[in-house]
Amino acid sequence: MTEAVFDPAGQPAAQPTPIPLRELLPWAVFGGLLLLLALYFVGAEQGATSLVPGMYVHEFVHDGRHLLGFPCH
Ligand SMILES: [Zn+2]
C-alpha cells in the first residue's frame, strides 16, 4: 500500500517509475565493458601488452596506476 505523496504546494508529487531489468541490462553491460577498457588502459597499457605505440598512454594514467596499486616501477 502506497500513500499519496504531496509536494509543498499541495499537488500530488510525481512518483518514480521503476526501470525494468530487461531495459537496464544492455546499458549495464555496456558500462561494464567501458570500465574494463579503462581498467586495461590504466593497468596494462605498457610493454608487451601495449596497444598504442610510445609511452603517452602510460604516462597519462601513471598517477592512476600508483593510486590503484598496479605494479609499475
Ligand atoms: Zn610508476
Describe this structure in words.
With 73 residues, this protein is mainly α. It has a domain at 21-67. It is 48% helix and 0% strand. It is built from three helices and no strands. It has helices at residues 21-43, 56-60, 62-68. 0% of the residues are buried. The mean pLDDT is 84. The structure holds zinc ion (ZN). The site of zinc ion has 5 residues, from helix 3.
Q: What is the H/E string?
A: HHH
Strand content: under 5%
Quantity of strands, as a count: 0
How far apart lie the N and C ends?
60 Å
Structural class: mainly alpha
Global outline: elongated
Average residue-wise pLDDT: 84
Total count of helical runs of at least 4 residues = 3
Residues in helix, %? 40-55%
- Main beta sheet strand tally, sense and closure: none
Low-confidence stretches: none
C-alpha-based Rg, rounded: 22 Å
Q: Which distinct ligands sit in these coordinates?
A: zinc ion
Note the main attributes of this structure.
single chain; 73 residues; mainly alpha; 48% helix
List the helices and strands and how they pair.
Layout: H1 21-43, H2 56-60, H3 62-68
The structure holds zinc ion (ZN).
Zinc ion binds at residues 62, 65-66, 72-73.
